[in-house]
Every structure is written in structure tokens, then in C-alpha cells.
Design a protein that fits this description.
single chain, alpha/beta, two-stranded parallel sheet
Length: about 290
């Protein structure tokens, strides 16, 4: 039995569908009881648990051959990341109680970054779970290609892509969520001992210019590139409702300045197969564009 948290999201859903396609038993770990019927209809067991509730998580993880841990992302954390720490404490306690045979945790590129930033939440996760003495794999994917979903309206309606990633011709390590889920499913079926790290990026690195070209191809009209000046970021993020935008700013700095990256520019990273052109075309289609 494989217990899957985050199953209603893109990564967890792709993971679960991959396991179910191979007729493997899946326990859907859900926060919302209303969503249990859908996953039971797909052939899953269902367990209801909050990610910050150790007792319910332990029950969901009990007797699992493998557990997939997908912590919720906090994009506007309080200083010191208290939201992430509550989840990490609950997850570690649950894993200690349940002692599953193996664990795959969704971490991130930048979990080993030298400076505090938004991704430090996953640094804390790796430190805590990696010390439990269980076989643990930390899957570190690159920047999600699906983040471009937020750019669809401007690309479609204004013909412009406004990029925080810069310079426009710099290729960044990116990955499609479908590939992340399928890789996680493959990792859960592997055998290993101790703690290991698996880096994952797409078949080719992607620049903001590449994203603009993909939008132009999908939309059938030109899409120009506009760099968002760094001195405007704080005001932009505060206008969007952020109370503490500095961790997000530092994360983007890390990508732009190169201190968030894979070792050896990703030469040893596993590679997905989904291109940014496929992802952008799907995003545009889903938007009705």
C-alpha cells in the first residue's frame, strides 16, 4: 500500500494515477472528506488527515509500504517559517509512529541554498525527516513550468510576458508537474537504504524568452518579453496581498544570481520528457485561449 499526501494536486494526482495504472494499491490521504468518494471510485482507500495533525497522519501512514509526503507550500510565510515548522513537526512524529518501509518527500531545487529564502521551508523538512533513520528519498524538482499559468492572461490579452526570472535569455532548470508525479511514483517502487537526493529537471533548460515563444505559438500571436525590475518587486507583491515578501524575493534572486541551481548545472539530474511548449499549450487551452 502506498499512502499519498497531496493527492488532489497536480503532482500527487499524477503520482497516484501512475501507481493505479500499474494496479498498485493506493491510500489517498485527504484533508477534505468530500473528496474521498472520487478517489474511492478510482480504486483507492481513503484516509482523512490534516498535514499538521500527527495522530491522523500516523494512522494514514500505518502499514504503508511507501509514503509520499507533499507538504503544503506557504508563499507568504511569517518570519522563521512557523507554518512549515508545524507541518514538519507533525510529519516527523507521524513517520516515527508509523515507521513505513520507505518515504519519498517532495523537496525542491534550492533546498541546499546558502541563503535563506522561500525554499528554506524544504531545507527544514529535509533536515528533520532525514534524521529519522528511515529510507528516505528527497525529490528536488526544478521550477515548475506550470507557474506560467499566472502569465496566461497577460500573454493572451496584452501580448506580453512579464518575467521576474532574468535575464530573458538565461536558461533555468524547469520541470512539468506531470513528470514530477511520474518520477515520484517510480521512486516509490525502488529499493534503497538511508537518505538519498534525486534532482529532476526537464529535457532542456528554459529561458523567459523560450516561454514567450511558447506562448506565441500556442496563442497564434506575438508575445513580447518585459523584464520586471527588481526594485518594483516588493510593492508588486505587497499589492498582491503579501505581508512578508522578502523570502519570495530572495528565492527569485537565487535563481537569477545562480545560487539556486542543481549541482554541475544539472548534469547528474534525472530528466523529464515534457517540454515547456506542451505545458504552455495545455495552459492556454485550459484558459479557453
Amino acid at each position: 500500500m502506498y499512502a499519498i499526501t497531496g493527492i488532489t494536486g497536480k503532482v500527487g494526482g499524477a503520482l497516484a494515477r501512475s501507481l493505479l495504472a500499474d494496479h498498485l494499491p493506493v491510500r489517498a490521504v485527504l484533508r477534505d472528506v468530500a473528496k474521498a468518494a472520487e478517489w474511492r471510485a478510482r480504486g483507492c482507500e481513503a484516509a482523512i488527515a490534516e498535514m499538521d495533525d500527527a495522530a491522523s497522519l500516523a494512522a494514514a501512514f500505518t502499514d504503508a509500504e511507501g509514503v509520499f509526503v507533499l507538504p503544503p507550500s506557504e508563499f507568504d510565510p511569517e518570519p522563521g517559517f512557523p507554518e512549515a515548522r508545524r507541518v514538519i513537526d507533525a510529519v516527523t512524529e507521524a513517520l516515527i509512529l508509523a515507521r513505513p518501509a520507505k518515504v519519498v518527500c517532495l523537496s525542491t531545487i534550492g533546498a541546499d541554498a546558502p541563503h535563506e529564502n522561500l525554499l528554506t521551508q524544504r531545507t527544514l523538512l529535509e533536515k528533520a525527516v532525514g534524521g529519522l533513520g528511515l529510507p528516505v528519498t528527497f525529490l528536488r524538482p526544478g521550477w515548475f513550468m506550470e507557474n506560467a499559468q499566472w502569465d496566461v492572461p497577460a500573454a493572451r490579452d496584452e501580448g506580453v510576458l512579464r518575467s521576474f526570472l532574468q535575464p530573458a535569455d538565461k536558461p533555468f532548470p524547469m520541470i512539468a508537474t506531470q513528470d514530477v508525479g511520474c518520477t515520484a511514483a517510480a521512486l516509490l517502487r525502488e529499493d534503497w537504504s538511508g537518505t538519498r537526493i534525486v534532482e529532476l529537471e526537464g529535457p532542456a533548460r528554459v529561458s523567459p524568452n523560450d516561454i514567450a515563444r511558447a506562448f506565441a505559438a500556442a496563442l497564434g500571436h506575438p508575445v513580447s518579453m518585459e523584464i520586471v525590475l527588481r526594485e518594483t518587486w516588493k510593492d508588486i507583491f505587497r499589492a498582491q496581498g503579501a505581508r512578508n515578501p522578502q523570502p519570495r524575493i530572495r528565492m527569485i534572486d537565487g535563481f537569477n544570481e545562480g545560487w539556486i541551481d542543481f549541482a554541475n548545472e544539472g548534469r547528474a539530474a534525472r530528466k523529464g520528457t515534457t517540454t515547456v511548449e506542451i505545458v504552455i499549450a495545455d495552459l492556454v487551452k485550459a484558459s479557453g485561449g
